[in-house]
C-alpha cells in the first residue's frame, strides 16, 4: 500500500461523535443487519473490519490506549 509504507497504520476515532450515526438510515441498517446493540458496537465492527483489511495487506492496526476492549483483536497494539 504505497499510501501507508509503514507496517503499522494508526487510527483515531475513539472520540467519534456518533450523533449523526443515530440519524443515519444506512448506519441503523448496518446495526440491525449485523445484530449490533448500538453505535458504539457499530464503531467496534468498523474497526475490526479495518483491522482485517490492513492485516490482509501485511499491515498492523494501532489504536489508542483509551480504545475500549473488544474493538480490535489482541494482535492490535492499543
Number of strands: 2
Multimerization status: single chain
Rg (C-alpha, Å): 13 Å
Write out the strand line-up for the largest beta sheet, numbering strands in chain order: 1-2
* Helical content (DSSP H or I, runs of 4+): 40-55%
- Sketch the topology as an H/E string, one letter per element: EHHHE
SS field, number of helical segments: 3
Q: What is the distance, rounded to the nearest whole angstrom, between the alpha carbons of the first and last residues?
A: 22 Å
Average pLDDT number: 82
Largest sheet, strands/sense/barrel = 2 strands, parallel
Percentage of β-strand residues: 5-15%
Low-confidence stretches: none
Q: Indicate the structural class.
A: mainly alpha
Silhouette? elongated
Describe the structure.
- A two-stranded parallel sheet has the order 1-2.
- With 78 residues, the protein is mainly alpha-helical.
- The two termini are 22 Å apart.
- Helix content is 42%, strand content 8%.
- The longest helix is centred in the middle third of the chain and has 18 residues, at 39-56.
Please describe the structure with a list of short key phrases separated by commas or semicolons.
78 residues; two-stranded parallel ribbon
Task: Describe the secondary structure blueprint for this structure.
Blueprint: E1 8-10, H1 19-23, H2 25-34, H3 39-56, E2 60-62
Parallel strand pairs: 1-2
Amino acid at each position: 500500500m504505497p499510501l501507508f509504507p509503514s507496517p503499522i497504520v494508526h487510527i483515531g476515532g475513539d472520540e467519534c461523535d456518533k450523533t449523526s450515526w443515530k440519524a443515519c438510515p444506512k448506519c441503523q441498517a448496518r446495526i440491525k443487519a449485523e445484530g449490533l446493540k448500538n453505535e458504539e458496537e457499530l464503531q467496534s465492527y468498523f474497526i475490526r473490519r479495518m483491522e482485517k483489511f490492513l492485516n490482509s495487506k501485511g499491515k498492523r492496526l494501532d489504536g489508542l490506549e483509551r480504545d475500549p476492549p473488544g474493538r480490535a483483536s489482541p494482535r492490535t497494539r492499543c
